[in-house]
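Reopening closed ticket. The problem is back. First fold of the pair:
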Amino acid sequence: MVLAIDFVNTLTSEEDRLPQWLSEQGLPWSEAILELRAQVEAAVLAARDGLEPDLAPLNAALRGAPAFEVLTWSGGVVVSRERSGDEVAQALAVLAGARRSCWPHRP
């Protein structure tokens, strides 16, 4: 599972590990993904500081490759989620939706 905090932490003061990390996740490299990392980082920092984050860029990435459920049969119905869109659009949506472990949660 891709975590937003892992995505953001690919940039350290010593190096940028984004290309290697994306490869390890099976995701493609693109300038759009680099831009999304900055947008996710800004949103996470705003939320951490109690400010309302700008979620518009993340929502745009999610809309670029909407998820849908697919039913298959394996002795019973199996439900899986897939995304439409090209490889980069799918990667952007996965990364934009990776929210566990860094976003404050409301009860």
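Second fold of the pair, where the issue appears:
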Amino acid sequence: MNCPRCNSSRTRVIDSRPADEGQTIRRRRECEECSFRFTTFERVAETPIVVVKKDGTREEFSRDKLLRGVVRSAEKRPISMEQMESLVADIARAIQKEGDNEIPSSKIGDYVMERLIDLDEVAYIRFASVYRQFTDVATFMNEVEKLQNKQLENDLSED
């Protein structure tokens, strides 16, 4: 593994531990040249999944791209990076378990929405506004009403 700071190949593992419920190995490394410490993640190489976008174009599924979208929707919200990474890992596992080589982008969006609504309502609305392409206030209000109804259902089931 090359050092991200000086590009030296002389790095050593300081610590290894399971992450992502045992699906990933997290390794702390140190460069023997510049002493820079960094983290790497190791996971099983999976069959590439192709995402079919709304316009019919196809691109390889990217956990990083999905995480960036979740991070954007959760900006300035009380959601830890660990929670967001866990959400993305759950979605990636669900996609892999389906066993298909292709998945519509709408299905990935649905997975995110299902998990984000329980994590943070504001992040959910932010994500929904991009995913559902809110074009007017009425569409936005419909989504807020769905959220309120879900919250009422949860409150009633707790009583």
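Update: turned out to be a display glitch only; the data is intact. The radius of gyration is 19 Å. The mean pLDDT is 91. Please close again.
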